[in-house]
Design brief:
Elements lengths: L9 H39 L1
Length: about 50
């Protein structure tokens, strides 16, 4: 027998995937910022030598 009513789980899946994407993007941006900061520190230390 086919299910009646609205589809099960589609709303939660959409919300979940949206939140996971946000989390991944946040981690990527933090990692990129960190790399840039470290790169700047290294450049500064090389210049001061």
């Amino acid at each position: 027998m086919a299910k009646k009513g609205r589809e099960k789980n589609t709303v939660n899946k959409a919300k979940h995937s949206k939140l996971i994407a946000q989390k991944k993007n946040k981690l990527k941006s933090k990692e990129a910022e960190r790399k840039a900061r470290l790169k700047a520190i290294i450049e500064k230390s090389k210049a001061s030598k």
